[in-house]
Design goal:
CATH class of the domain at 2-53 and 61-165 in chain A: Alpha Beta
Oligomer: heterodimer
Order of helices and strands of chain B: HEEEEHHH
CATH architecture of the domain at 2-53 and 61-165 in chain A: Roll
CATH superfamily of chain B: Ubiquitin Conjugating Enzyme
Catalytic activity (chain A): [E2 ubiquitin-conjugating enzyme]-S-ubiquitinyl-L-cysteine + [acceptor protein]-L-lysine = [E2 ubiquitin-conjugating enzyme]-L-cysteine + [acceptor protein]-N(6)-ubiquitinyl-L-lysine
Strand content of chain A: 5-15%
Biased composition (Acidic residues) (chain A): 527-547
Largest sheet of chain B: 4 strands, antiparallel
CATH architecture of chain B: Roll
Distance between the termini of chain A: 102 Å
Largest interface: A-B, 15 and 16 residues
EC number (chain A): 2.3.2.31
Distance between the termini of chain B: 38 Å
Number of helices of chain B: 4
Structural class of chain A: alpha+beta
Number of strands of chain A: 17
Pfam families (chain A): IBR (PF01485), IBR_1 (PF22191), RWD (PF05773)
CATH topology of the domain at 2-53 and 61-165 in chain A: Ubiquitin Conjugating Enzyme
CATH class of chain B: Alpha Beta
Protein name (chain A): RBR-type E3 ubiquitin transferase
Strand order of the largest sheet of chain A: 1-2-5-6
Shape of chain A: elongated
Strand order of the largest sheet of chain B: 1-2-3-4
């Protein structure tokens, strides 16, 4: 503070500038020193690349970010002794983080000195601030036809993007919007701009509307409220699409509501997909687990919804595997996502393993050819008791060895045979196959239909009963005809359900007493795929009839 | 919304009453009920309904503006898009629940209704027989519409 005249001139300059730029702060300890932040908001957003710090061999495509706001220029001016007539102002410029290239900073400072010369070594601070503002608006000429993007080191990426978002938000909050729903002018701070289309509504209206839609189950309406939104391009209307759960949380909507939204959307998709299989248990009827629509574990993750927009723009071509009436065996396994019941998607019975031949429950689902081969297999093959593979004998005795699982079994009744002594089955008087080891020696096609027991016998009985019913409709009740045909066919064995067949070798010969209340109840429950609280132990004394002693009595649920 | 709903309706009513759409008189049916509006719509000059005064009731559902208003013609009218069952209901365009968007306003509904009198939309008709006549035998349509207007919508 040597020269009094100079003092006045320099102080005067700075104080007059604070009148124009109130954000100019004069250093309290030095009246000739001042700083100002000059915002950088280029008129055209600055295209920025963030190349990775380390050169990687793999070419990762870099995305260009267009930043509307960048951290400000921090200008520090010191007016030295002898300014303005003898000395130029002392200028310091920096940015935090230092995104502006050093050579640009140098150029800007040099320009300051040039300006001082141009002004005939006069007061130049105002002109210089003005110059920097213009430079900032023009992105400091960083973008040239040769250089369309500014490269900024990777480590500043988050900070810069963050700054850009914050400034946009600040700008948005300062604005006023007319909410199209409540028709009130609202401050940006209580408004929300929809991500996809940019339409703005006030938060309470959006909350009310979307909560209402979701509670009513009308998830398709959870999209932009604007009447013309998405209509500009005619057909592209669908693209504006429903909102992401993450966006709903941002508005914000309650977590519970968003969860319901995600679940409803998935449910709608499952329901509209014809290939969806539902659990055959009547009390459950949940959808089978599906890769296409995985069960939502985290409703707030974006991934669950990523496929959503694609679905809406281009419907996924139906998966032929899913819609084929008879998928390969390995694809038949379905597991209910609600009760975890494993079942076959074709026959809807509980899962029977890969090698079992099964057919749709409804005849409408199979073609005439398939029906014919199904009937053929049903009536002209004997199933293996272990794996149910259909077998047909071309010649030889009735002791069979399954080609699939090597189980020994009886061709006549599909009973499991003890591999160490398979022939005793044909030597027991009380068994229907007594002395019949060599029946049908030429194969069953050659000699005609033999007397079959077990699964094959039942199929024959059912076929005969159906025929009888067809010939004499209404006369006999179906059950009556069936019973009759079974008697005719000399059937004395169990029903042909694969599970029953598998266990056939353990069961005593002779029909179970169907009138025993426990068994009847069991059958009823089984038909409905239900469970109850009964233990098998309560079913009565039929355990005693078993040939193989039971393991220590572990209470078992049916 | 329920709280804001009344505010919006009051605002819309104020706007409509201070600057009523062409050829319409809008009042509340009962001053204590903001949700039921009564409109008298003049048959547009260029239409077959010219000279008639049609009474409409516009009911705003409780969750307006999230659900569309319901418009009924109380005056009998011969029109393919207005039901001829004593209810005079209309259900097309923005009045459909799935088409309605909350920023739509009542004034837009009224203008749409008026435009519908000028130009019926036989492809989206509730009265298909009237739509057939309109499409195939316009003269006969015109005649009946004018008769009905005279009979039901004049001098009341």
């Amino acid at each position: 503070m040597a020269d009094l005249n100079g003092d006045d001139e320099r102080e005067e300059e700075l104080s007059s500038i604070t009148a124009i730029y109130p954000e100019l702060v004069v250093d309290p300890s030095n009246p000739f020193s001042a700083s100002i932040d000059i915002p950088v908001a280029p008129s055209t957003p600055l295209a920025v690349l963030f190349p990775p710090a380390i050169d990687t061999l793999t070419q990762i495509p870099l995305d260009t970010h267009r930043l509307e706001h960048l951290p400000p220029l921090q200008l520090h001016i010191i007016l030295p002794n002898g300014y303005p007539s003898e000395c130029p102002p002392h200028l310091e410029i920096k940015t935090t983080p230092s995104w502006l290239p050093a050579e640009t900073l140098e150029r800007l400072i040099k320009e300051g000195h040039n300006l001082w010369e141009e002004y005939g070594r006069g007061q130049v601070v105002f002109a210089y601030i003005d110059f920097l503002q213009n430079e900032a608006e023009a992105s400091f000429e960083l973008i040239t036809p040769q250089n369309e993007e500014l490269e900024i080191p990777q480590e500043m990426k988050i900070e810069l993007l963050d700054f850009d978002i914050k400034m946009k938000r600040k700008k948005f909050e300062a604005e006023t919007f007319d909410c199209g729903v409540c028709l009130e002018p609202k401050k940006g701070s209580v408004c929300y701009r929809l991500m996809k289309c940019g339409h703005v509504f006030c938060v309470p209206c959006l909350q009310d509307f979307y909560n209402n839609c979701i509670s009513e189950g009308d998830v398709a309406s959870v999209r932009c409220i604007d009447p013309d939104c998405g209509k500009e391009n005619g057909r592209r209307r669908k693209k504006s699409g429903t909102l992401n759960p993450s966006e709903l949380l941002q508005i914000p909507l309650d977590k519970e509501v968003v969860k319901r939204y995600v679940e409803l959307k998935r449910k709608k998709k499952l329901e509209s997909d014809k290939s969806t299989i539902y659990c055959p248990r009547k009390w459950c009827q949940g959808p089978a687990r599906s890769k296409k629509y995985p069960k939502v574990t985290d409703p707030f993750s974006m991934e669950a919804f990523e496929s959503d927009s694609e679905d809406e723009s281009a419907p996924v071509p139906p998966n032929t595997n899913d819609t084929k009436p008879n998928p390969a065996n390995i694809e038949r396994l379905a597991i209910c996502e609600d009760c975890n019941f494993a079942f076959c998607r074709v026959c809807l019975a509980s899962w029977h393993g890969d090698y079992v031949r099964c057919w749709p429950r409804s005849e409408a689902e199979i073609s005439a050819d398939e029906k014919a081969s199904f009937d053929y297999i049903r009536l002209h093959t004997s199933p293996c008791p272990t794996c149910s593979s259909p077998c047909q004998k071309t010649h030889g005795c009735n002791h069979m060895n399954c080609f699939q699982c090597h189980t020994h079994f009886c061709y006549l009744c599909s009973s499991w045979l003890d591999p160490s002594n398979p022939y005793q089955h044909f030597n027991k008087k009380e068994i229907g196959c007594y002395m019949r080891l060599w029946e049908l020696e030429e194969g069953d096609e050659g000699v005609g239909n033999g007397r079959f027991n077990g699964a094959r016998g039942w199929e024959a009985a059912i076929a005969a009963a159906e025929e009888a019913d067809a010939n004499a409709p209404q006369e006999n009740e179906e059950v009556g005809a069936l019973q009759q045909a079974m008697n005719n066919a000399g059937i004395q064995d169990r029903p042909p359900a694969p599970a029953a067949v598998q266990r056939a070798h353990r069961r005593p010969v002779g029909p179970p007493d169907a009138n025993a209340p426990g068994i009847r109840r069991f059958v009823e429950l089984a038909m409905n795929d239900e469970e109850d609280d009964w233990d098998s132990d309560e079913l009565g004394s039929d355990d005693e009839d078993w040939e193989i002693p039971m393991m220590p009595q572990v209470p078992r649920r049916i | 919304m329920q709280a804001g709903s009344g505010k919006r309706i009051t605002k819309e009513l104020g706007e409509i009453q201070s600057d009523p759409p062409e050829g319409m008189k809008v009042t509340l049916k009962d001053d204590s009920d903001l949700h039921t509006w009564q409109i008298v719509m003049d048959g547009p000059e260029q239409s077959v309904y010219a000279g008639g005064h049609f009474k409409l009731i516009l009911v705003l559902p409780k969750d307006y503006p999230f659900k569309p208003p319901v418009v009924n013609f109380q005056t009998k009218i011969y029109h393919p898009n207005i039901s001829n069952d004593g209810k005079g209901s209309m259900c097309l365009g923005m009045l459909r629940t799935d088409e309605w968007k909350p920023p739509n306003k009542i004034v837009a509904v009224l203008n749409m209704t008026r435009n519908l009198l000028i130009e019926p939309n036989p492809d989206d008709a509730v009265e298909s027989s009237i739509a057939e006549v309109y499409k195939n035998d316009y003269k006969s349509f015109e005649k009946t519409a004018k008769e009905w207007t005279k009979k039901y919508a004049v001098g009341k």
